[in-house]
Design a protein that fits this description.
9 helices, alpha/beta, Rossmann fold, six-stranded parallel β-sheet
């Protein structure tokens, strides 16, 4: 299972509980320009997908479940569409087939990065706590402003709606009912357009479901992977 973080994030956004799933090897990467990875960041989802495919190939990963959050979900969908990596399942959080970004967000990414970090922290949670807001804000502030701008530019350019039907692999879409950054209707539309998708909505939850409901999200993903593995074995 490979965890792919979202815009202005890093591997550190994933709670430790995600790395303790029995019988599943779990890892997380830092996209170029994020966390411990060297810059530059990228300007399109396709470029981030290519970098992630290189990571998968370098480690020889097979039978991979891609777990993507927000921009990471767009990257996961693009990798699945391209077919260059051995991707068996997708689990997507805060996900949509398109990710329009307001002009003020793009502008503040360069001109007012601290203000943007505070905005994401304030709007990313369904039921905000100071602790979780602090995690999100620190992640955004730790990412270079040019990289953050590139992330949101990549999201704004992303639109996979015409090609969703070609992504014919089991997909779990987890949506927060109170998500203000990727509204629930976007995740519903995504799930409806994918041939093998199921949608689970978490009440009282916002954009960062893995922070707000870590144990629930972990269990949902683990059950999804194990169920698909069991179905595959029975079919052989």
């Amino acid at each position: 299972m490979l965890l792919i973080h979202g815009a202005a994030g890093s591997h550190a956004i994933w709670p430790q509980t995600f790395f303790n799933i029995p019988d599943i090897r779990v890892m997380a990467l830092d996209l170029p320009g994020h966390g411990r990875s060297t810059p530059p960041g990228r300007r399109t989802i396709e470029q981030y997908a290519a970098a992630t495919e290189e990571f998968i190939a370098a480690l020889g990963l097979e039978n991979v479940t891609l777990v993507g959050h927000s921009m990471g979900s767009a990257i996961a969908l693009t990798i699945a569409l391209r077919g260059a990596a051995d991707v068996r399942n997708l689990a997507l959080l805060g996900a949509s087939a398109r990710m329009p970004v307001h002009e003020s967000v793009l502008r503040n990414a360069i001109n007012a990065p601290d203000e943007l970090a505070a905005f994401v922290a304030a709007n990313g949670l369904g039921q905000a706590t100071a602790e979780l807001q602090g995690i999100i804000q620190r992640e955004a502030q730790a990412t270079d402003a040019t990289t953050v701008f590139g992330d949101f530019l990549a999201c704004n350019r992303f639109d996979l709606r015409p090609r969703l039907s070609a992504i014919d692999i089991p997909t779990l879409v987890i949506a927060g009912a109170l998500d203000r950054m990727t509204p629930l209707r976007f995740s519903e539309s995504l799930a409806a357009g994918l041939p093998q998708a199921q949608l689970i909505t978490l009440e009282g939850t916002g954009h960062f479901a893995m922070l707000e409901r870590p144990d629930d999200v972990k269990s949902l993903i683990a059950d999804f992977i194990n169920d698909k593995a069991s179905t595959e074995l029975k079919a052989r």
